[in-house]
């Protein structure tokens, strides 16, 4: 070692002015020049939207959703119809005339019966058909016709003589009511729907209520008093204000039963 020379070397620290080149950035620049790296967008240039690819994915997806929705809707309706048919007494089903083809493409006669009973102790034994309507659908002519039959109409009830038509349901159930209406109208019924007070309320509640335009203030007769016996002696009846109002199932049922 030469005289005056130190056995070590001194390095000066500190940061060099300006940007320090990084190995990764230098490597990325090299790949760009060689064309092997991903292309960078030029400043101010927007990425091009590939509409063809979007449409190619969106249309099949939409078609699939529509088909799936249709199938699920059909299965739901069919299950509901099957459950309703199971609740129908076997005697009523046997009394119906078989539908000639599909209901959507062939004329059909439908009997609608609304009874005055429910599942409460007070009205559990009531089964008079106070609402009677015959509906005929004709898909070819695109028409729906209906006939409303007054409940107090006196007719010949098979096996019971001349009575009010609404008593047929009480005397012999849906089967006798069906035969009585067919005898009166000369029409064969393909379908029947029987609805009691509880069903009436349930349908309206399921729809979220119904809007009714009450023409004037009403104080009805005091049927089905909701209070105790002492208060019911002086209770005047159900009250409805004038104007449009939304009614739930219970309120709508009361309104539909008002006679005075």
Verbal overview:
The protein has 260 residues and is an alpha+beta fold. Among the domains are: 84-195, Nucleotidyltransferase, domain 5 (2-Layer Sandwich), CATH 3.30.420.590; 200-260, no CATH class. Helix content is 37%, strand content 20%. It is built from 7 helices and 10 strands. A 4-stranded mixed beta sheet has the order 3-2-1-6. Strand 2 and strand 3 (143-149) form a beta hairpin. Helix 5 crosses helix 7 (249-256). The longest helix has 37 residues, at 51-87. It starts with 22 loop residues before the first helix and ends with a helix. 11% of the residues are buried. The mean pLDDT is 83.
Helix/strand layout:
Layout: H1 23-34, H2 51-87, H3 90-95, E1 108-115, E2 129-138, E3 143-149, E4 154-157, E5 161-164, H4 167-185, E6 191-195, H5 197-206, E7 210-214, E8 218-219, H6 229-232, E9 239-240, E10 243-247, H7 249-256
Parallel strand pairs: 1-6
Antiparallel strand pairs: 1-2, 2-3, 4-5, 7-10, 8-9
């Amino acid at each position: 070692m030469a005289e005056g020379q130190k056995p070590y070397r001194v390095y000066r620290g500190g940061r060099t002015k300006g940007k320090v080149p990084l190995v990764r950035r230098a490597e990325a620049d090299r790949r760009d020049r060689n064309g092997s790296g991903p292309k960078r967008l030029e400043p101010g240039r927007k990425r091009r939207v590939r509409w063809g690819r979007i449409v190619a994915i969106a249309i099949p997806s939409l078609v699939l959703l529509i088909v799936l929705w249709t199938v699920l809707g059909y299965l739901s309706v069919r299950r509901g119809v099957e459950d309703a048919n199971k609740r129908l007494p076997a005697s009523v089903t046997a009394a119906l005339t078989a539908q000639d083809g599909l209901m959507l493409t062939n004329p059909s006669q439908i009997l609608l019966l609304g009874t005055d009973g429910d599942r409460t102790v007070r009205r559990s034994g009531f089964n008079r058909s106070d609402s009677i309507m015959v509906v005929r659908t004709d898909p070819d002519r695109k028409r729906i016709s209906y006939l409303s039959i007054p409940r107090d109409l006196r007719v010949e009830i098979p096996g019971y003589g001349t009575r009010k038509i609404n008593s047929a349901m009480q005397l012999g159930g849906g089967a006798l009511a069906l035969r009585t209406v067919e005898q009166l109208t000369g029409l064969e019924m393909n379908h029947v729907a029987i609805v009691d007070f509880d069903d009436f309320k349930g349908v309206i509640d399921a729809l979220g209520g119904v809007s009714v335009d009450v023409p004037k203030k009403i104080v009805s007769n005091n049927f089905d008093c909701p209070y105790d016996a002492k208060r019911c002696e002086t209770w005047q009846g159900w009250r409805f204000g004038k104007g449009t109002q939304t009614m739930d199932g219970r309120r709508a049922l009361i309104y539909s039963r008002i006679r005075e």
